[in-house]
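Data deposition worksheet. Section B asks for the primary sequence of the deposited chain exactly as it was used as input, without tags or linkers unless they were present during the calculation. Section C holds the resulting structure in token form. Section D is free text for depositor observations; keep each observation to a single sentence. Incomplete worksheets are returned to the depositor.
Section A, Depositor: J.P.
Section B:
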Amino acid sequence: AGLVVKVKEPQASEWPRLQAGQLLFCFLHLAAEPTLAQALCERGVTAIAFETVSHDGQLPILAPMSAVAGRVAVVQGAALLQHADGAGLLLGGVPGALRGRVVVVGAGQAGGHAAALAAALGAEVIAFDRKPQRLEAMHALGPNVTGLFPYPDRLAAELAQADLVIGAVLLPGARAPHVITRAMVAGMRPGSVLADIAVDQG
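Section C:
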């Protein structure tokens, strides 16, 4: 075939089947997969990563997947918080009990959808981002959402009070920056949950 279209990146068992001159179109996340990048170069394949295709400054192929990932992170996180090993709480709270506190790091497509769902469930939401327009969008979600710039001391303080933390920082085509440190994670409460959507970018 001249064109190979798939969703997931080629697995190691598939690499020998790729031919020089072929065009490969799929999610690749090469920043976190240097051996895959090397294999594609050695095979002579022209590869286009879904997650880097842009139009008018947007990522139209990645956007719907990010929306799903952000919402799933909240759903899975909420389920784990209710689990026996978790904090034993409902994100939206009930009369006589506190609401859950959700911290979202990165308020783009994935993080924005995560914040919106957590807020709709009634949780107290703190969303961190570097872009003022994203902080404004988070503030507009409702009175239970606060948008903040990710100063390390403020981030550490919020993580220490969080029930659910969602990492959703993306640099298109690049390795995801390490915003949350090991020390910050160590300072989180027992039973809290950390869901990192950006983990496939390193």
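Section D:
The two ends are 31 Å apart (CA to CA).
The first strand starts at residue 3 and ends at 5.
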